[in-house]
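Bug #77: duplicate submission created two jobs. Keeping one. Sequence:
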Amino acid sequence: MSHDVVGGGQGVAMRHGPVFRWVTAAGLLLVVLGFVVWQTGRDHPELEQVELTVLEEEPDGTCAVRWTDPYGAGQRTGIRC
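Kept job's structure:
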């Protein structure tokens, strides 16, 4: 049984090393840039937790509550269902 090898005995070599390095470098750059933007960005009040206090609760499920507005409008009181 005879096996002929094309190309001087080596066959076709896979050359994905440079592409893999560029994709890895681009991914690392995006991660670093994302971290820098996150660190230097302004605070987002919509991401803050709101502390809610129940003042009064009714048998029908409604209640009076008080909370501090994260947008700087101070304390608010309202009725929630």
